[in-house]
Structures are given as structure tokens and as C-alpha cells.
Design a protein that fits this description.
The protein is of the alpha/beta class. The chain contains 17 helices and 22 strands.
Length: 529
């Protein structure tokens, strides 16, 4: 990861300051008398559990939502952020974890949206627009995305890069990055940190939100923690103590990052899932493995080596498969997700917003979505059973919401992810496919997910876990399959599972050849293709 050693230019007057901010939604107070400030030439990390008020504060700072009370100041002067366009005019731009791109517009059209170069009668100058985006890509080090491609055709990681370029196209003096690295691979994070280092040295004020402590250690000058909608402490990075920060975030100390693993099943046990010579065109090549009841099997590798495609194939979302898939000894044909569900698969997808949830629908409707067949008789839903099922899912995942009738879009990112998992728990599936389940959630929610994975294993379920955080694979898995060029190149087990061993196998070298200094400080294994 790039070193961010340049201190930049800071002054006593904050570049951006929020004073006494209050915001309430439908009876729920998101922010209460919240204060926050960021200086020019610093990276100020904003920490807090999901639902602590961080994203609400960010939306107020960049004009997406108005505060109910309080004021915002830029370089000492009070301003009113009426909307994101006004905020951009004032020099404030944001990169959101939940993407704000239009999928059916091109990359260039998205980046320059609302500030396109125009002619004398208002017509968009397409050639000039593409040239500006190409120049911007060259400045920020994006060399593999074509400006004319539709955003809908990009991977989630590339869409995140476009979101970052979109914010930078406004040449902001204050840049807010809200979980902007959550979908990025190791090299992409490195390039972003290089860029943030250059911006910081030029005097840009940067507000950075991340739940990855390794990233926080790497990039922060100062850190502010929010809990229950208010600022509970600000510290210099030099005084950073992770245990203290977690205690501030949660109001309690967590002694261990990962719970105790369930005992590893014997290799003599009959496999619950048996995959033989699985292939899928240019996505997967001759993959064979077995997964037993009570086992957590990890999937690792550098970005784009087929990890995500493996999970999608097992859930019936990849066509023209070759090879064989057996569940409990019976051969199954995965022609669709519906067939996969009937075979006992449950899939927690990469992007909860577009793949896991119906955002306008209620918590109740989302939780029962995958199990409606069991709740229906003669084409009619049993409303009493539906409500009990939704209540059960909310209680098991400890989803914080005033009512199960709230639209799921009103929840924090962590609680939305809990809804996704609750939906699949209610199906009674036996084989759980987790696609980077802790992306963009706080340490407390991560811990709850870790305990759930362990609980599933102890209950005799089988878990296939793909994570871009190497520490999760080390802390949770009985075995880890490492993929390279669409194939499984090595399988590590028990004490042989280390971050260095995973990285070495990903690179196709022996572990001892990987210098300690080259180990990825962000603990990421890259995104899927």
C-alpha cells in the first residue's frame, strides 16, 4: 500500500465543519447535536458502527439531505447545501458506497452528468466529453475502462472506480469517500491511496469512511468516532489504539476478533456437496472439490480469478456448465437459481442493493421472499405465517428497525445485509454460499456474521465463503481453496491457512518467497471477475 507520509497543509480554520447537527427519520433520531470538522491537507477518518449516523452526516454535508437543526461551515463561512449540485459548486464532492450511477448511460455520460460540456444552444459536445473523461482517467490511473462502455456492463469494482472518477471530475476542495474501497481489489486500493496522497499534499480536505482497520491505519491523520448519532471522540492517528476505537464505536470491548471454530468434519464423512471437473467457458476451468456438513470452506485469490463466478455457477446463474454437481450423492442440474434453492443452496450475493434486496419493499416482504412457496396454499399467502417468519428472521439476525413494514431502503447498510441473510436462513437450506458478506459493515456486525457462520457449521450446514479480507479466511475457515486463472491451484487446511500462504498461492510462488513487507496491508484478496 502506498505510504501517505506527506502531512499536507492544515490550518486552524476547518475546511468543512458541522455544528450541532440533528436529523430524524420517521421517529428515529439518526443524528443528535453532532459536531465534526476536517482540515485542509488531512485525511480524517470517520468511524462508527452501522447506524451510528456516519452516512447520514455525509449526506447532509454534500447536500443529499437537509439537517433538521445545525449549521455547516466551509472555511469558516456558514453555507446551505441545498442539493449535491450546489455542494459541488462549493467544492464538496462525495463517493458513496451505494452507487449513484445510471446503468444505461455510458461511463463518460455518468462521470460528467449535470456538468457536461455544451455548445451555444445547449447541445452536449460528445467528443469533448469523452476527451475530458479520458484525461481524468489518465490522471487517476484508470487505464482499463472505456469511456463509451455502458455502466451496466462493468463489474461492481469498476463501477466503484467510475463513482470515484465522477466525484473527482468536479475538482473538489473537500472530498468525502464513504466506503469507497469496499468493492475494490488490492491493486485498486493501492492506486486510490496514491491518488488521495497526492490530493492531500495539494491541500484537499479528505473525509474517509471505512470498516477495514488496516486501511484506517494506512491512511488516517485523525480519526473521529460516532456512536448513536453523535461524536464520541477524536484522536490523532499517532495515538490510534484499535481496541479503544472499537470500544468507542460499540460501547463495549471485544476481546477476540473471531469466535472459536466448530470442529472440522472428518474427511471420511460423506460430502454434502461434491463438485467434479466443473467448467464454464472462459469463467471456470476444471474445478473439483468436496464440501462436508459442518465445514467452512474458503475461496481466495487475486482479483478476477473466478472466485465469484464459482459461487454464481453453483447457484444456477451461469449457463452452459460442464462437469458434475452432486448434493447428498444425487446429481443436480443447476439451470436456474430456483433449481439451486430446491437443491438446498442459499446465496448471499456480492451487492445487497441490486442483487439481494427489493429496496422499496418492506423488511417483511424481503425476509420471506425466498420462502414464499412454503407460506403459500392454493396461490394465497398465509399472512399469519408470513408475519411469524419475518419476526423470526428479525429476531435471529437482531435487525434494528422500528417496524417490519419499513422499506428496507431506510435501514443502514449493516442492517440491510442482515435482512439478506435472514431471508436465506428462513429457506431451510443446507449449503450457504457467502459472497464477501462483510463488505461495508462495521466491526460489531462483522462479529455477528462470524458467529452466525460458526453457528451454521455447528448446526450441520455447509458454508462456502468467498471473502476479500484474508483475515476472515484465516479466522473462520477449516480449509481454503486458492484460485488462479479460473482454476483451484492449492487448498490449505487448518494451521497451514495464513495470509502469507494464501497470497503466495495466489501469486503462484512459494510462501517463503513472499517478503513480509510485500504482504497486503489492507488484508484483501481482490474482487471477483
Amino acid at each position: 500500500m502506498a505510504e501517505l507520509s506527506v502531512a499536507g497543509t492544515s490550518s486552524d480554520t476547518p475546511a468543512l465543519e458541522a455544528r450541532g447537527i440533528r436529523k430524524q427519520f420517521a421517529g428515529t433520531v439518526a443524528l443528535e447535536d453532532a459536531d465534526f470538522s476536517c482540515r485542509r491537507g488531512e485525511v480524517h477518518v470517520l468511524l462508527g458502527a452501522n447506524g451510528a449516523g456516519k452516512s447520514t452526516l455525509v449526506k447532509i454535508l454534500c447536500g443529499v439531505q437537509p439537517p433538521d437543526e445545525g449549521t455547516i461551515h466551509l472555511d469558516g463561512e456558514e453555507v446551505t447545501m441545498t442539493d449535491p449540485i450546489r455542494a459541488a459548486e462549493l467544492g464538496v464532492a462525495a463517493v458513496f458506497q451505494e452507487l449513484s450511477l445510471c446503468p444505461h448511460l455510458t461511463v463518460a455520460e455518468n462521470i460528467m452528468l449535470a456538468h457536461e460540456p455544451t455548445g451555444p444552444v445547449g447541445q452536449i459536445r460528445s467528443r469533448q466529453l469523452r476527451r475530458r473523461v479520458s484525461d481524468l482517467f489518465e490522471q487517476v490511473g484508470i487505464d482499463h475502462i472505456k469511456p463509451d462502455i455502458l455502466v451496466a456492463r462493468l463489474t461492481l469494482a469498476d463501477q466503484q472506480l467510475v463513482e470515484i472518477a465522477k466525484a473527482l471530475s468536479h475538482e473538489p476542495r473537500t472530498l468525502i469517500v464513504d466506503e469507497g474501497t469496499s468493492a475494490l481489489g488490492r491493486e485498486e486500493v493501492r492506486r486510490l491511496f496514491d491518488l488521495l496522497g497526492r490530493l492531500r499534499s495539494q491541500g484537499t480536505a479528505i473525509i474517509f469512511i471505512s470498516h477495514r482497520m488496516a486501511e484506517v491505519r494506512e491512511i488516517a491523520d485523525r480519526l473521529t468516532v460516532f456512536r448513536n448519532g453523535t461524536n464520541v471522540g477524536t484522536v490523532d492517528a499517532a495515538d490510534m489504539d484499535e481496541g479503544y476505537l472499537v470500544e468507542l464505536m460499540l460501547g463495549e470491548r471485544i476481546e477476540k476478533s473471531f469466535p472459536e471454530r466448530a470442529p472440522r468434519p472428518s474427511s471420511a464423512d460423506e460430502p454434502l456437496l461434491d463438485v467434479t471437473h466443473l467448467g464454464a467457458g472462459d469463467l471456470l476451468d476444471d474445478i473439483s472439490f468436496q464440501l462436508r456438513a459442518g465445514e467452512v470452506l474458503g475461496v481466495a485469490g487475486l482479483e478476477g480469478q473466478g472466485q465469484g463466478d464459482l459461487l454464481l455457477a453453483l447457484f444456477g446463474m451461469v449457463r452452459r456448465l460442464s462437469g458434475e454437481i452432486r448434493v447428498r450423492g444425487e446429481r443436480v442440474r443447476m439451470g436456474s437459481p430456483w433449481k439451486a434453492i430446491r437443491a438446498g443452496f442459499a446465496f448471499i450475493p456480492e451487492d445487497r442493493k441490486t442483487q439481494g434486496l427489493l429496496q422499496p419493499q418492506s423488511l417483511r416482504e424481503n425476509i420471506v421472499l425466498a420462502s414464499l412457496g412454503a407460506l403459500t396454499r392454493h396461490g394465497l399467502i398465509d399472512r399469519s405465517r408470513e408475519r411469524r417468519t419475518a419476526e423470526s428472521g428479525m429476531q435471529r439476525m437482531q435487525i434494528k428497525a422500528a417496524s417490519m413494514e419499513l422499506p428496507v431502503a431506510a435501514l443502514s447498510g449493516g442492517n440491510q445485509q442482515k435482512v439478506v441473510i435472514a431471508k436465506w436462513l428462513e429457506t431451510g437450506g443446507d449449503i450457504f454460499l457467502f459472497y464477501d458478506p462483510t463488505r461495508g459493515v462495521d466491526v460489531g456486525t462483522k462479529r455477528a456474521f462470524y458467529e452466525l457462520i460458526g453457528e451454521l457449521a455447528r448446526d450441520g450446514k455447509a458454508v462456502l465463503l468467498y471473502s476479500t479480507e484474508l483475515s476472515e479466511l484465516v479466522g473462520l475457515c477449516h480449509r481454503v481453496m486458492v484460485m488462479n486463472d479460473r482454476r483451484v491451484v492449492e487448498t490449505l487446511a487448518d494451521n497451514a491457512i495464513t495470509e502469507n500462504a494464501i497470497l503466495a498461492a495466489s501469486l503462484g510462488v512459494r510462501e517463503r518467497q513472499v517478503p513480509e513487507a510485500d504482504a497486503p496491508t489492507t488484508q484483501t484478496a481482490g474482487g471477483a471477475s
